[in-house]
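Good morning,

Attaching, inline, the backbone tokens for the sequence recovery test we're adding to the shared suite. The designed sequence is right after.
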């Protein structure tokens, strides 16, 4: 509705300026872009409205009176946009359903899959922007879990939305493949599996599950053998001081390979991908040189204990004790800390792919870390640090409680998807659909992924959430399977029409026939899609697209209930073709938006 908003704003601005002239008011002319176009709370009030509160003081008149006189001025002209009226302090318009509706549908028909990517001038919203998105960040001592699934869904969905809005997107992943937690899994392998020659293949396990089992075994072992923790720490020192060809590094490479192979299988299953992987083993020493440069320039300082620090009070505020807060960047022995690595990695990434903006998809527990990281990079003189953004998201758990991987109570990603797949298959069989869907198992997998991703993404990222598997799989209500069912239903209508030789209308005269309330409500929803893409891209918020999908589906359900298609084909073929075009345009938008929130489309269900 963006083009109608612009036209309506200009009409109101012209009306206000005529009002100023007629009243002899000393005031500057009003411009269209200074007006705020809103959607009235009730459809009967109009489709668009402009509040005139701000003019009351300048014009020395009530906003209600101004609205009425401006509406009267406009109505003396021949306005094709629609019917203008005053409603209290607002000037509203009921758009011309025939002409506006035809334009919307014609636009979708002509643009097809590209619909939603451009503004009213035909320019892509984020054209020319290079945006890097980091997400997932798995550890190579365990498989992906439910928290990763939310992270992955957010990162992948945001990447798709940004790309849909016209940005060039570069997806990256930092693999945490070094540290004492990795050594704990390695030590357990040497204790319990090496002598037997155990491998994921020999045990019939995914590689990441096998290494994760080793991590759990270490935790149990260390409770009876406390010295095991020191042994793991010593192993890390040996690894850092060793060479790539020594026995320890060979074991490290082998176990990392097992984990990454398994994690990659999960990525492929969930539709997640990356342009580049960064490895902590290759980045953990980065940043030290930049810190030493900052020390030389006086940006950083050396504390009494010999460590290199920076005062971060400017962004964190004072500590609980009332003192300034400092961040250690190099320990007193000269070794790096975690944030030092992140500084070096950020600099390397900008050199690798000079981005206009970078988005870090990381849980809200790291808000402080990223606030400090961005501050330090700015202080070190990197201008692009202004364009770093932390997409913080809340915790996700099952109703049974929080996950603790070291105790073996982790909500494994693969197990969760397998469970959803199994439940989806049962639902398909109960409906008696398993013999009508071709590959029912493939459908069940797509239903499971649609249920999972939509449930995770329909919630605003900042909120903590509980993932309820049973609710997510419902075929009714605000769920992924409901959206998939709606898409399959429209696909079925289009197939039946094709079999009957009925083709969707494409000319504006036929498309202008769609003026009933249900038809108009659906057309208005479809018209919102470009605004939804733009807004969700600006906010890095897939929940905006998810909510929109449900709104479109509800609007289509109302349309299909009130406006038959195939049953009127013989009595009114032209109207049937017009409604068929509306159904086809709805499917175009549904398929596009479903892809953005990782809900697989099904043409049969």
């Amino acid at each position: 509705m963006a083009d109608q908003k612009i036209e309506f704003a200009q009409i109101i601005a012209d009306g206000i300026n005529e009002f100023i002239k007629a009243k002899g008011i000393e005031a500057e002319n009003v411009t269209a872009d200074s007006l705020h176009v809103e959607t009235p709370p009730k459809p009967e009030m109009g489709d668009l409205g402009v509040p005139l509160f701000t003019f009351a003081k300048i014009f020395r008149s009530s906003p209600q009176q101004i609205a009425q006189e401006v509406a009267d001025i406009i109505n003396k002209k021949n306005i094709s946009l629609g019917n203008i009226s005053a409603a209290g302090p607002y000037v509203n318009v009921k758009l011309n359903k025939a002409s506006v509706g035809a334009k919307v549908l014609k636009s979708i028909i002509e643009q097809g899959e590209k619909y939603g990517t451009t503004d009213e001038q035909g320019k892509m919203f984020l054209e020319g922007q290079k945006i890097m998105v980091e997400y997932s960040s798995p550890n190579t001592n365990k498989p992906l879990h439910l928290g990763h699934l939310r992270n992955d869904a957010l990162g992948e969905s945001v990447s798709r939305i940004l790309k849909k809005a016209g940005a060039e997107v570069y997806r990256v992943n930092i693999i945490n493949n070094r540290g004492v937690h990795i050594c704990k899994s390695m030590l357990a392998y040497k204790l319990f599996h090496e002598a037997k020659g155990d491998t994921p293949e020999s045990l019939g396990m995914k590689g990441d599950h096998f290494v994760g089992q080793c991590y759990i075994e270490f935790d149990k072992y260390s409770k009876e053998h406390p010295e095991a923790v020191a042994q793991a720490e010593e192993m890390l020192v040996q690894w850092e001081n060793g060479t790539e060809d020594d026995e320890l590094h060979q074991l490290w490479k082998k176990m990392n390979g097992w984990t990454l192979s398994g994690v990659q299988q999960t990525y492929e299953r969930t539709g997640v991908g990356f342009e580049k992987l960064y490895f902590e083993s290759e980045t953990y020493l980065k940043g030290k040189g930049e810190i030493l440069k900052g020390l030389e320039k006086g940006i950083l300082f050396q504390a009494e204990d010999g460590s290199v620090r920076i005062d971060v009070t400017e962004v964190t505020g004072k500590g609980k004790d009332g003192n300034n807060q400092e961040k250690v960047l190099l320990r007193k022995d000269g070794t790096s800390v975690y944030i030092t690595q992140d500084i070096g990695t950020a600099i390397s990434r900008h050199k690798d792919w000079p981005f206009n903006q970078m988005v870090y998809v990381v849980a809200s527990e790291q808000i402080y870390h990223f606030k400090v990281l961005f501050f330090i990079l700015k202080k070190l003189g990197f201008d692009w640090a202004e364009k770093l953004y932390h997409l913080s998201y809340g915790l996700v758990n099952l109703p049974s409680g929080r996950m603790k991987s070291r105790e073996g109570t982790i909500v494994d990603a693969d197990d969760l998807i397998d469970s959803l797949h199994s439940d989806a298959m049962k639902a398909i069989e109960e409906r008696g659909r398993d013999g009508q869907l071709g590959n029912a198992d493939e459908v069940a997998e797509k239903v499971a992924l649609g249920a999972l991703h939509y449930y995770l993404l329909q919630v605003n990222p900042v909120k903590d959430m509980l993932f309820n598997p049973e609710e997510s799989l419902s075929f009714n209500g605000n769920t992924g399977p409901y959206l998939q069912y709606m898409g399959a239903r429209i696909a079925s209508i289009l197939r039946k029409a094709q079999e009957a030789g009925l083709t969707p209308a494409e000319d504006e005269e036929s498309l202008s026939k769609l003026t009933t309330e249900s038809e108009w409500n659906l057309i208005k929803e479809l018209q919102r899609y470009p605004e939804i893409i733009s807004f969700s891209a600006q906010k890095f918020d897939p929940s905006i697209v998810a909510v929109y999908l449900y709104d479109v589906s509800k609007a289509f359900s109302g349309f299909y209930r009130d406006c038959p298609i195939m049953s009127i084909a013989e009595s009114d073929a032209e109207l049937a073709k017009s409604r068929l075009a509306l159904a086809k345009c709805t499917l175009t938008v549904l398929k596009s938006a479903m892809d953005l929130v990782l809900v697989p489309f099904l043409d049969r269900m």
